[in-house]
Amino acid sequence: MTELNRRWVLASRPVGMVRESDFALEEVEVPKPGDGQILVRTHWLAFEPAMRGWIDDKPNYIPPVPLGEVMRGMGVGEVVESRLDGYEPGDLVQGMTGWQEWVIGDAGMRKLPAGTDPRLALSVLGITGMTAYFGLLEIGRLQDGDTVLVSGAAGATGSVVGQIAKARGCPVVGIAGGPEKCRWLTDKAGFDAAIDYKSEDVEARIGELCPNGVDVFFDNVGGEILDAGLAHIARGARIVVCGAISAYNLEDRPSGPRNYYRIVAQRGRMEGFVVIDFLPRAPEAVADLLQWVAEGRIRWEADVQQGFENAPATLLRLYSGANFGKQLLEI
Amino acid sequence: MTELNRRWVLASRPVGMVRESDFALEEVEVPKPGDGQILVRTHWLAFEPAMRGWIDDKPNYIPPVPLGEVMRGMGVGEVVESRLDGYEPGDLVQGMTGWQEWVIGDAGMRKLPAGTDPRLALSVLGITGMTAYFGLLEIGRLQDGDTVLVSGAAGATGSVVGQIAKARGCPVVGIAGGPEKCRWLTDKAGFDAAIDYKSEDVEARIGELCPNGVDVFFDNVGGEILDAGLAHIARGARIVVCGAISAYNLEDRPSGPRNYYRIVAQRGRMEGFVVIDFLPRAPEAVADLLQWVAEGRIRWEADVQQGFENAPATLLRLYSGANFGKQLLEI
């Protein structure tokens, strides 16, 4: 019996908004693990806004996914065959599985403790949580009493950013789209206030809600939202540039933040980062995040879609804002 | 005999490009110094690009000059009458004289050592030199071997920035307008290369001259020049946002830097500052700068205009790029 490995490869480089047709479904033979390798059956895939950048052929922090190659992505799977010490069939592992049902892994695949919820592993305890943790604490240098503003606040990263800041006792305002997300932020995630960018004047509301200015602005969105936050930075503000989801699918680079110059009078700092640099320090983040989750200080949501054939459609949910919580696919 | 004090007051808030008619010349009585005060005859005035911001009624790092009040500005003058211990008639002093021929000062006026060249005191050893020194070393955190890019490089601040970097042994590229300024940068100021933004493709030239990217970008200009530099930042780059002379006289805020997002993949940092914060540390800067001037490592130019009645016209020279070196007026 020859089982087949279904995989999604990059079929074309999108121009503007990524489409499902930019990916093609292939069937190939299931590979065989060599010495020091494992064969993994993928059960879960995680989706990141940054994926849009990975499929552009532009300078970035990692090389673009080559045309015709399996789409890059994080996943959780089960070891089916092992020729690697310390890994047994049945072990749950997490790593760069790519969008494929079967994958050959090595020691770069991290074993998950038995009983781990793969949804938690792929969100709060995964890249998403690391991004929030190191972005806020290392790049944003959160201090006691800082007023924190988060855009994309109901997103997987933004919601953790705001809740870490709350766990540290700081006032936090979130910006999100729609009443449902805003209600979740204030009622479940403990944000002090939420601004609905779909129905409110974001810049005016930031001014009302942060009368002494914003000390740390964690921006996932870019564009007008970034400008609105820059208009209200406090002296010595740190603007953590984590993402610009508003721009990822635009054909032309949009104009930059008109208000960038506020960093001069306010002695502000805009800083970018790539979470990969902090992965060697993941254990300290995981320890804190696990504790906050256990204490109920970090609430999280996962938007779980079903079926391997829906991988491209699931990615697109991120850019329409359809997802609520970490975007996952159960295969 | 009642001598009159001529002074330039702010007559109107400019919309777009500042005009001479935004200032009005008044004559009032020469004031009398009270206890703890000195009467100073102003001999020199210094002009800064930032002055355009001081006469706008917008949030800034200092309050706007009120309408009808003497225009704010640095100057050097001579003590004519003293009721302040330690100051004698004939002493040379430097401070915020404003645009007026006579001014009442106090201990905030700094006594200059006998024989000081007022042009040097108002440029390399003044606000200009402090801005270059602390901007490059503290905000830019210059490291050995950094490739440094300076815009407005033939300006008073930019030329000192580049020469400090050269004194520290770093490769330095300057951006300036016109062949004369560019020649001065490479032939006199020791820059490794100069890019003439009036005749060259700035972004392409930066790429050629800085094949490993720019580690510190000291930007005085903003606009397209800032974008061109951002396109070539190296990993871990520091972008020192000192000024945006290209935008100061625009009626509408221009769009921001399209390439700001490069700071994410490159882990870059854009940081603004106001030199006032560093003035308590002026002595350390003055000591280094004086030594570099004495050693011929810092060359400097002053563009000296004549006659108090020409103060507004002299300011305008900064925004047309007519000046070459520190813009001064000898009264």
Provide a short characterization of the protein structure.
Two copies of one chain form a homodimer. By secondary structure, chain A is an alpha/beta fold.
Explain the overall architecture.
The structure is a homodimer of 331-residue chains. With 331 residues, chain A is of the alpha/beta class. Chain A folds into two domains: 4-123 and 300-330, Medium-chain alcohol dehydrogenases, catalytic domain (Quinone Oxidoreductase, Chain A, domain 1, Alpha-Beta Complex), CATH 3.90.180; 127-276, NAD(P)-binding Rossmann-like Domain (Rossmann fold). Chain A is built from ten helices and 15 strands. Chain A has helices at residues 51-54, 118-122, 127-139, 156-167, 179-187, 202-209, 223-230, 262-265, 282-294, 311-320, and strands spanning 4-10, 23-29, 38-46, 74-82, 92-95, 102-105, 110-111, 148-151, 172-176, 193-196, 214-219, 233-241, 269-272, 302-306, 326-330. In chain A, the strands form three sheets. In chain A, strands 3, 4, 5, 6, 7, 14 and 15 form a seven-stranded mixed β-sheet that branches. In chain A, strands 10-9-8-11-12-13 form a six-stranded parallel β-sheet, sandwiched between helices. In chain A, strands 1-2 form a two-stranded antiparallel ribbon. In chain A, helix 8 links the parallel strand 12 (233-241) and strand 13 (269-272). The longest helix of chain A has 13 residues, at 127-139. The radius of gyration of chain A is 20 Å and the shape is globular. The mean pLDDT of chain A is 95.
